[in-house]
Each structure stands twice: as structure tokens, then as C-alpha cells.
Design brief:
By secondary structure, the protein is an all-alpha fold. It has one domain (12-78, 88-140). The chain has helices at residues 3-7, 13-39, 43-77, 92-110, 116-143. Helix 2 (13-39) packs antiparallel against helix 3 (43-77) and helix 2 runs antiparallel to helix 5.
Length: 148
């Protein structure tokens, strides 16, 4: 066994589904909470902005995140080795996309390139499908059985 194999943080594929769920939950909660707290100074518009963010998030999930999470679940469950690296819940392309999205979100906020109300509503809009996808990972973790 090579040194890299000894040091690889390998976990069963079922555990990888849980890691993905936890990661997506963390990201979704962070965005959702940042969106809600960011909208607090605009209290008079919160009752308008939050439903828009929630509705947009559901649409985002149905049109995009549903397919993305299904693709990742299928990829995880079809990995040929039984104990893949715990960071393989994403493929390289997804890690690159995630880095770009995080950088864009932070840049928009830090450099004030977008009206804060719009930005925080968008944070809610992105947090919702992440959380919905996380529950899909948890469900698949629950029902996953090792192929015979």
C-alpha cells in the first residue's frame, strides 16, 4: 500500500452521501442566514424580499439544482471503489464552479457592485436549492444499500 493510499481520507460510498449532505447543508444555511440577516436593515421590504428569495430558490432547485444533485448522487453511488476519498463528493468541475460562485458572491458583497437588497435576496434564492439538494443527499444516504 502506497503512502498516498495510507493517508487518503477514505470513507464508504454511503458515508460520502452524508458528507455531501452536510456540505450542502452548511453552504445552504450560510447563504440563507446571510440573506436573512442582510435584509434585516431593510425591514419594511423583508416581507416582499423573503418570499421572492424562497420562490426563486424553489425554481432554481427545479430547473437546475435537482439535476445537479441527482448527477452527483449517481456519480457517488457508481464509483467503482468501495472507499473513495471523502472529498470526492464533488468532481473537479464542481469544485471549480463552486470556487467561482463563492468568489463572485463575496466580490459582489465586498465591492458593493449590486444593491444589497438584491444581493441578500439572491443569497436566500441560492440557499434554498442547496438545502433542498442536501435533503436529497440525506434521503439517498438513508436508502443506500451496497450493491451485491
Amino acid at each position: 500500500m502506497s503512502l498516498s493510499e495510507k493517508l487518503k481520507p477514505a470513507i464508504p460510498k454511503r458515508g460520502l452521501l452524508m458528507v455531501a449532505g452536510v456540505f450542502w447543508t452548511f453552504a445552504g444555511c450560510m447563504l440563507f442566514a446571510r440573506g436573512i440577516t442582510g435584509l434585516l436593515p431593510f425591514a419594511k421590504n423583508m416581507y416582499f424580499e423573503i418570499p421572492i428569495g424562497l420562490a426563486g430558490g424553489i425554481v432554481f432547485f427545479l430547473l437546475l439544482f435537482s439535476r445537479i444533485s441527482k448527477k452527483h448522487i449517481k456519480r457517488i453511488t457508481s464509483i467503482e471503489i468501495e472507499r473513495p476519498c471523502m472529498f470526492s463528493f464533488f468532481d473537479v468541475r464542481a469544485y471549480i464552479l463552486m470556487t467561482i460562485m463563492i468568489s463572485a458572491g463575496v466580490s459582489l458583497r465586498v465591492f458593493k457592485l449590486v444593491d444589497p437588497q438584491i444581493l441578500y435576496t439572491f443569497y436566500i434564492c441560492m440557499g434554498v436549492p442547496l438545502l433542498m439538494s442536501a435533503f436529497r443527499f440525506y434521503y439517498n444516504w438513508y436508502v443506500y444499500h451496497k450493491p451485491q
